[in-house]
Amino acid sequence: MSGEGRRGGREARRAARTSVAVRSLPALKRKLPLYEVLSEEQVERIHDTAMRLLETVGIEFREDEALAKWKKAGAQVHDQRVRIPRELLMELVAKAPERFTLHARNPERSAEIGGNTMVFGPTYGSPFVRGFDGERRYGTIADLNNLHKLAYMAPALQNTGSVICEPVDVPIPKRHLHITYSAIRHSDKSFMGPVTHPSRAEDAVRMCEIVFGREFVHDNAVMVGLINGNSPLVWDATMIGALRVYACSGQAMVVAPFTLAGANTPASATATVAELIAEALSAIAYAQLERPGAKMILGSFLAAVSMKSGAPMAGTGELGLMNLMIGQMARKYRLPWRSSGMLTGSKITDAQAGYESAFNMFPIMLAGANYVMHCAGWTEAGLTASYAKFMLDAEQMEMLWKFGQGPRFEDFDEAIATVGEVGPGGHFLGTAHTQAHFQDAFFMAELFDNNSFEQWLADGEKDAATRGLEAARKALDAYVAPPIDPGVDEALLDFIRRREAELPDEQS
């Protein structure tokens, strides 16, 4: 028997012995009412202010091709400053679709972006990880593989993400190839693509064409790019170039001003939203100059700056209000919108991390964000991806997914009937209804401890972070890769080999 055959047999036996069913919840179809904090007059005030900022102050597009296209479209261009008439801006923004499908390698994991749908994904962009030994260190490709596996196995994450942590052991010019391959190979959910250089975005598109086919990719979103603006009022050449690649290739883009309220925006929640809307709409409009109908997500990354230390803060009341406001503005423009979920400035998985993450995420649920990044693993203002917090966050997202479905009445009459069966002074533990529904009637967190004090002592006095790490180990031990066509896999690896031979090891 060939070595490949022996390995296949061992892998099959291992899968049968160790695998657990990969539960996957679909994108959330929210049944909660939208919570809106702005009156119609206030919505129009923010809109008018955003328009006036673009008409009078203008915004910089630091790239010659973009400047030429804006000038041809009818905007006023002076040096790198672009002033956009509101009629032109809104005409272009209206070309972006209100909703679209984000296709996954496994069609069952595809999801609609927009409307009443919410899609959740893991943290993004952390240079450091906090691993199983509790130490903070630079991330590696092994860490990234692990985190993509955990994202695949997390039921309430519909997106695998991309650079959950930076694999610093891979040369920067070649890193995007391995990040994209890891997201494709270790999960069959949708994923995000690189934006650190237009050529890297092009490589990711080519890899998607190997998986999905060139014609399909040209007309269907299979990947999301995150285009960050430099607030206040700047789009740089790298981001514009990546945006152009994604737009012209038919792929979806989040355009997200990187908001540090009080530092690169005014020290005002409402004024910050007006600036952010101006910045985001200008990029959405520009994408339509590249390809009318380009799939766009109005994005934001929200943090406030501590006036004591200058550090970013998460989970504040003002940030919650800003998420609610941005949701209203996105709906005015009939655009899908993105926010950031389980954010915290805490360095470890502690009470601060829990409080800030919960308070940050809950307004997002009420506001109805369509695409939510950073829903698992974020610590230290995004500098560190935590294995422990990843698992705790992922479980909380399951609870929030259930919350977002709203009240259930499917078994209401059956449940009420048991009241008559039990009568005064009885209990419901043994009723047929309880036996049939106890597992799904109330969310039961596996990683939280609700045992007696004595049982907690007997189990080793474990805190939540310890239980999160144990859950990560268990999940990775049980992981079985989703199937992929061997020919497609080999074609991806061959593409990586050829591109690596062309690329330098050092960043120029």
Rounded to the nearest angstrom, the radius of gyration is 24 Å
| Distance linking N and C termini | 48 Å
What is the CATH H-level superfamily of the domain at 94-404? Trimethylamine methyltransferase-like
How much is the average pLDDT?
94
Quick summary:
This is Methyltransferase. This protein has 508 residues and is an alpha/beta fold.
Describe this structure in words.
The chain is α/β, with parallel strands linked by helices. Among the domains are: 94-404, TIM Barrel (Alpha-Beta Barrel); 412-441, no CATH class. 48% of the residues lie in helices and 14% in strands. It contains 18 helices and 20 strands. It has helices at residues 3-18, 40-57, 64-73, 86-93, 141-153, 172-185, 198-212, 214-219, 237-248, 269-290, 317-332, 351-367, 387-404, 412-422, 432-441, 453-458, 464-478, 486-502, and strands at residues 28-29, 59-61, 76-78, 81-83, 100-102, 111-113, 117-120, 128-130, 136-138, 191-193, 223-229, 234-235, 252-261, 296-298, 301-305, 312-313, 338-340, 371-373, 378-379, 384-386. The strands form five sheets. Strands 10, 11, 13, 14, 15 and 16 form a six-stranded mixed sheet that branches. Strands 1-7-18-17 form a four-stranded mixed sheet, covered by helices on one side. A four-stranded mixed sheet has the order 3-4-2-12. Helix 2 crosses helix 10 (269-290). It is globular and about 80 Å long. Residues 1-8 and 12-19 have low confidence and may be disordered.
Layout of helices and strands:
Blueprint: H1 3-18, E1 28-29, H2 40-57, E2 59-61, H3 64-73, E3 76-78, E4 81-83, H4 86-93, E5 100-102, E6 111-113, E7 117-120, E8 128-130, E9 136-138, H5 141-153, H6 172-185, E10 191-193, H7 198-212, H8 214-219, E11 223-229, E12 234-235, H9 237-248, E13 252-261, H10 269-290, E14 296-298, E15 301-305, E16 312-313, H11 317-332, E17 338-340, H12 351-367, E18 371-373, E19 378-379, E20 384-386, H13 387-404, H14 412-422, H15 432-441, H16 453-458, H17 464-478, H18 486-502
Parallel strand pairs: 2-12, 7-18, 8-20, 10-11, 11-13, 13-14, 13-15, 17-18
Antiparallel strand pairs: 1-7, 2-4, 3-4, 5-6, 8-9, 15-16, 19-20
Helix pairs in contact: 2-10, 4-10, 5-6, 6-7, 6-18, 7-9, 7-18, 9-10, 10-11, 11-12, 13-17
